[in-house]
Every structure is written in C-alpha cells, then in structure tokens.
Design goal:
four-stranded antiparallel sheet; 17 strands; alpha/beta; 17% strand; seven-stranded mixed sheet; globular; binds pyridoxal-5'-phosphate; Aspartate Aminotransferase, domain 2; Aspartate Aminotransferase, domain 1
Length: 409
C-alpha cells in the first residue's frame, strides 16, 4: 500500500484546485460523485486547443480546421477504445449522461415503444434515468416500472426478475448508484433483460472513473456517461450504441452536419455517428475527454481501484465509530461513495458545518427522490472519494462530522 500511497500523493499534485484553502482550511474535496476535479493535463490540453488549434471541425479547408478535426475525431476513436466499442461509429457525442438518456428515449424510444410496453428501471436511479423515460412513456402510452432495492442497497434481484416480462422493451439501470455506491451486476442484468427481448441502457456516470468498462463483453445496447465525472470538461458526454441499433434509429436533432443532402422539399440524413450530431459540436469537450482518458490509463484502473477501495474501507470504519451515524448502502460491491446521516440532524446543517471545516461534500436528495422515498428520508450527506483523496481527507471528514454532532445533537 505504501507504494500506492506514494503514487497517489504525486497524482494529487496534478490537481491545481487542491492547492487552495477554503474558509481558511485545507480543502478536502469529497464531492467527486458530483464532479471530479480536473488534472493539469486536461486543463493544458483544452488551453492548447483554444490557444493554437481553435477552429470549427469537419467543414474547414485549412490547416487549423484539419488539426481540430483530427483531434476531435481522434477523441472518438480513443473513447471507443476506452469503453471497448467495436467501431468508432458507435460513439455519439452529447452533452452528458442526462442528454444521453434523453437522446435514446427520443430516438430509439419514440420509434420502438408503444402503448402497453414497459420500461424497467430501478428504485435507485438518478432522475436523469427516470424522467426521460416517463416523458416518452407518457407520449406513447407505455409504463415505467421500477425494481426495488434491498436494505443493504443492492438491487432486489427477485423483484427485478419478477418485473421482467414480454411487455418489457427497455431495461435502463445504473452501473453504480450515485447515493448508495452500489455497483450493479451489469452483465447479469443485461442477460436477463435480453432473455425477454428487451434492450438495455446502462447509466455509466459513476462507473467510468472506477473500472475499465467493456461494453462489448457486457453486451449492453446503450451505455451513457458524462466527461465531467471522468476528470474531463463539463457539457460533454457520450452515448455508446450497438451499430445495428443506431443504424435503425431516426435523427435526434436537425441542422448542419447531420445531413447528406438538403433541398427545400426534403432532406436525407448522414450515416452514424454524424446523423445524431447536428450543429457545431463541443470540440474541446471531446479533446479534453481524450486527455482525461489518457490521464486515467496512465495511472491504471487496477491501481485506482485498489487505492479507492482502501480509502472507502478506512472511511467506512472511521465513520461507523461515530455514535448516531447511519450509513445508507452497504452493498458487497461498492464504489467509493458513502451516504450518511446523523440521527436527529438535518443533512443540510451537517453539510454546512463540514463546509466551514474545508470538507466539501454534497447534502441533499442527490437527484434520487424515489430512492429517498424508499429510504424514508429527505436526503443524506454524501462523501465521495477519488484518486486525489487520501486518509488526511477522511480524517478531516470524521473530525468535522464529530464537530457537527456536538453542535447539532
Ligand atoms: N446518473 C448518475 C448515476 C449520476 O450520478 C448523474 C450525475 O450526478 C447523472 C446520471 C446525470 O449526469 P449529468 O448531470 O452529467 O448529465
């Protein structure tokens, strides 16, 4: 572990945001499930694009446009390789996980779902993987059904199996809960969904920074994630879709780039992926994401996982020593995220006290109101860990929670 600690101490130095103090205190940034901090290599790569390479892509017949287009399309290849897609055309650029789900719901969903069909989700989905399905369901007369969760935060697989039927046309679930930390059995659930003929969309927002994802091996039909949770820029995300399914889908938005030929009477559309990417894209988003992936791959997911699991274990043990503290989500397979409450204290009050101590966490319902209803609480305090955190951050968290308990209970 000491080698790993040394390696991650160096990695921590690559995040300029961590050099500042907050309220006069050392910053313990424990909100990576909301967004990760950005390493210098990503910031520098985006700066380089804006400094030297700035140009629109695909359409210019000049040097800078060529450089920008190469970097932009190079990012598509890098992302395809990163998640194990077979073809780079299976990678669609969007604004993030939320737009990714909306995109699939409004293209695949609108064409393939009909009255009486069911979309199976789970009780622990982020609103981004609930509301788009409800909106489409309402349009076509389909129904959204949710599999329950067990008290330890794992999906109730009996309930999941019971709710799968010939009516199920889409199964949409998260690979990792942003509240409970639960990692789900993506391959197993996908197999069960395919057995009833349903398509599968996996919300990868919380998993891509933890594990090497292999969409081909998992056999998912769609996989969506946001770059900003992966050390990359805001406003950029990815939809992976199996080529045959993407080929069968209508366009998403109309405009430049997505066309093959336009006349006043009629437009024919481009092939995938550009058919789904109308207008000037988020060029630095793609380029910055490629830099973020390189950053992660240079560290190696095996090391990241070992380091984060050690932090999770240490933090869980230390927090559980605090009287009146309850952790939500104790799944066997967990990401580096801990949600908790102090019995008798409001999560927002705890969050505020932690902030004053330089400990940045999120307090609220985390865009998972159905999960909060299932847990019977309005919200939690959530601490989430990443490659730049260390035991000093955990100790600062524990000390601040002890202080909050003294002040609030
Ligand atoms: N799904 C999960 C599991 C998330 O954690 C989040 C963000 O918190 C989202 C979806 C939505 O991601 P974005 O806001 O980047 O679209």
């Amino acid at each position: 572990m000491s080698n790993l600690n040394e390696l991650f101490a160096e990695i921590r130095n690559e995040f300029p945001a961590l050099t500042q103090t907050v309220h006069g205190k050392r910053l313990s940034y424990l909100d990576s499930a909301a967004t990760t901090l950005k390493p210098k290599v990503v910031i520098d790569r985006i700066t380089k694009f804006y400094t030297n390479e700035v140009s629109n892509v695909h359409r210019g017949a000049h040097y800078l446009a060529d450089i920008a287009t190469q970097a932009f399309e190079g990012a598509r290849h890098k992302i395809a390789n990163f998640i194990g897609a077979e073809q780079f055309e299976e990678i669609i650029f969007v604004r993030g996980t939320t737009e990714g789900v909306n995109f699939v719901a409004n293209t695949w969903g609108l064409t393939n779902l009909k009255a009486g069909d069911e979309i199976l989700i789970t009780e622990m989905e982020h609103h981004g993987n609930i509301v788009p399905w409800q909106m489409i369901a309402e349009k076509v007369g389909a129904k959204v059904v949710a599999a329950g969760i067990l008290d330890n935060g794992e999906i109730d697989m009996d309930d999941f199996k019971n709710k799968l039927s010939s009516k199920t046309k889409m199964v949409a679930f998260t690979a990792c809960s942003n509240v409970l930390g639960t990692n789900t059995d993506v391959a197993g659930m996908t197999k069960l969904a395919h057995a009833v003929g349903a398509k599968v969309l996996v919300d990868g927002a919380q998993i891509v920074s933890q594990f090497k994802v292999d969409v081909k091996a998992l056999d998912v039909d769609f996989f969506v994630f946001s770059s900003h949770k992966l050390f990359g820029p805001f406003g950029f995300g990815v939809v992976y879709g199996k080529r045959a399914i993407l080929d069968s889908m209508p366009p998403y938005q109309g405009g430049g780039s997505m066309i093959s030929k336009v006349t006043i009477e009629k437009t024919t559309y481009n092939d995938v992926p550009t058919r789904f990417e109308a207008g000037t894209p988020h060029v630095e988003g793609a380029i910055g994401t490629a830099a973020a992936i390189e950053f992660l791959e240079n560290i190696g997911f095996d090391k990241i996982h070992a380091y984060e699991m050690d932090l999770l274990k240490y933090a869980t043990e230390k927090l559980l020593e605090i009287p009146d503290l309850k952790i939500y989500g104790m799944a066997n397979d967990k990401g580096p995220t801990i949600s908790f409450n102090l019995k008798g204290a409001h999560h927002s009050d705890v969050g505020q006290i932690l902030d004053q101590e330089g400990v940045a966490v999120r307090a609220g319902h985390h865009c998972t109101q159905p999960l909060m209803a299932r847990l019977g609480i309005p919200g939690t305090v959530r601490a989430s860990f990443s490659v730049y955190n260390n035991r000093q951050d955990v100790d600062a968290l524990v000390k601040a929670v002890v202080k909050a308990r003294e002040l609030l209970l």
